[in-house]
Amino acid sequence: ARPPKPRITVIGTGYLGATQAVCMAHLGFEVVAVDVDPVKVDALASGRLPFFEPGLDTLLVETLATGRLRFTTDFADAAAFGEVHFVCVGTPQSSGSDAADLRYVDAAFSELARRITGRALIVGKSTVPVGTAERLAGMVAELTGGEVEVAWNPEFLREGFAVEDTLHPDRLVFGVASAEAEQSLRDAYAPLLEEGVPVVVADLATAELVKVAANSFLATKISFINAMAEVCEASGADVSLLARALSYDDRIGGRFLKPGLGFGGGCLPKDIRAFRARAEELGVSAAVTFLHEVDQINLRRRSRTVDLVRELAGPDLHGVRVAALGAAFKPDSDDVRDAPALDVARLLYLEGASVVVYDPKANANAHRAYPDLDYADSLAEAVNEADVVLLLTEWAEFVSAAPEDMGVLVAHRRIVDGRGALDVERYRAAGWEYRALGRPAEV
Ligand code: UGA
Questions:
Q1: Where is the UDP-glucose/GDP-mannose dehydrogenase C-terminal domain positioned along the sequence (predicted)?
Q2: Dihedrals φ, ψ of 94, to 5°?
Q3: Ligand 1 within 6 A of CB of 262
Q4: Is the dihedral of CA 50, 56, 61, 66 positive or negative?
Q5: Whole-complex ipTM
Q6: Is 326 a pocket residue for ligand 1 (Cβ < 6 Å)?
Q7: pLDDT in tens, 83-130
């Protein structure tokens, strides 16, 4: 027999929620997505994605056309419609502390619970401090007289691969407190389970922890290789060769071992900070003290990049014209939250350099975050008359640019490769002075 298809709602239509809503509709479910922001809801309902994500824009238009997906600002509508409600709202860093700000999650759960009348399951997907799900379950039970259950189903999608990661996840994690909740999640994910996606069924606390543990591990791996880059810089060794040699050991593996400017974005930095804050509350801060070092190593790469500009242009950066290539926290994204690229541009600006930023997709968001910097509309405009060029986000457009062509435009052929992504031989052959994090000045 075919599994029943529960009616789905998605609360929050940011990165995570919009992707979840579109993908669930694509998989054949009836979906209602809710957001408090009418501007976002209008855009999505008319087939416009309010952010850049490869492939999601076309899938949005396709799924809207099936009639299985609609958007609303009305919680009552969602509460009446859904059997399985996915909460996908943000958990940003609190202002003034490292802890996660749970006000949106709390509001989403209570807004729903207050309005649901029959049986339903509310599934948290947001990244939260361990213990949150149990607290919310208590609140929901009180508001609904025990008719509505809470489950946790963390999300592991990467920006830039959101659709691919949602339709073909490495694994699903179901944090549940009952067999009924597990069955509802199995029904909601039946199309993926049929394809053999592994599922780990766990308690609520474990499910919450899997997410922060995964992001902590990834951040640690990046900071590990960047710590080695610091040692390479002090000893004349080359971190790119070191990373390659390590990567052949398949116990270590090469993924997330790319040295450079380090991690940024809306997840890794705030998640490791919130994890430390929560561990402290739980009395186990010693267990995750290393995450403080992970954070510090990551931030030190930014000042080291500024040092490399000084090595090339001299100690005083006043009036030095710098082309900052990239603003997004990684390529194929327009997200500038906690972006190392934009932070380096800001640091150079504060030192008096005249900074021109160019990012193929993130210029508008970068401009909103740092209106004081200058923004160019193209790579050629950005590097024009530059004293130093910096590669800060490894967009294909930058990596594939010809050093010979770029050399004609700049004032001085000097480049800092903040992502270790450029062909050093080719740059040197074209007369460029090349510097990269973790690599000797001359080879
Ligand atoms: C990250 C996780 O990879 C996802 O699994 C998780 O679901 C997501 O956070 C989340 O919590 O929502 P994302 O923030 O989209 O995904 O970006 P990543 O692809 O993980 O990259 C993070 C940062 O690490 C980027 O700034 C990237 O440039 C940097 N990075 C990555 C490195 O510096 N070196 C590497 O080897 C890999």
A1: 323-424
A2: -65, 150
A3: yes
A4: negative
A5: 0.97
A6: no
A7: 999 999 999 999 999 999 999 999 999 999 999 999 999 999 999 999
Domain shared by 231 and 197, yes or no: no
Q: Going by CA atoms, what residue is nearest to atom 29 of ligand 1? A: 263
The answer to whether residue 2 is domain-embedded is no
Residue 222 CA: which ligand 1 atom is closest?
Answer: 34
Residue 4 or 225, more confident: 225
Cα 35 → chain centroid = 20
pLDDT at 3 over 80: no
Q: Which atom of ligand 1 is nearest to the CA of 156?
A: 7
**Residue 4 pLDDT class (50, 70, 90 cuts):** confident
pLDDT digits (tens, 9 = 90+) for 316-367: 999 999 999 999 999 999 999 999 999 999 999 999 999 999 999 999 999 9
- Asked if residue 443 has pLDDT above 90, the reply is no
Q: What is the mean pLDDT of residues 197-202?
A: 98
Q: Is the same domain home to 268 and 397?
A: yes
- For the chain, what is the domain count? 2
User: Are residues 93 and 31 part of one domain?
Assistant: yes
Helix (H) or strand (E) holding 325: strand 321-325
Alpha-carbon 52 to chain mean position? 13
Catalytic residue flag (residue 23): no
**Do residues 365 and 400 both lie within one domain?**
yes
Tokens standing for residue 43: 């855009």
Nearest CA to ligand 1 atom 5: 156
Contact in structure between 209 and 407 (CB atoms under 8 Å): no
256 lines ligand 1 (CB under 6 A): yes
Partner residues linked to 203 by β-bridges = none
Question: Is 177 in the same domain as 230?
Answer: no
Q: Name the residue at shortest CA distance from atom 7 of ligand 1.
A: 156
Indicate if ligand 1 lies below 6 Å from the C-beta of 437: no
Claim to verify: residue 241 and residue 188 sit in the same structural domain: no
Q: End of a domain among 202, 237, 270? A: 202
> From the CA of 411, how far away is ligand 1's center (Å)?
35
The length of the chain, given as a count of residues: 443
Are 91 and 141 in the same domain?
yes
- HSE, side-chain direction, 13 A CA sphere, residue 100: 28
Instruction: Please work out whether the CB of residue 308 comes within 6 Å of at least one atom of ligand 1.
Output: no
**Same domain membership, residue 304 and residue 368:** yes
161 Cβ closer than 6 Å to some ligand 1 atom: no
Which atom of ligand 1 approaches the CA of 340 most closely?
26
- Here the CATH number for the domain that contains residue 112 is 3.40.50.720
Helix spans in 248-289 (H): 268-281
Going by alpha carbons, the residue nearest to atom 9 of ligand 1 is 267
Closest residue CA from atom 20 of ligand 1: 158
pLDDT at 133 over 90: yes
- Residue 311's domain comprises 218-436
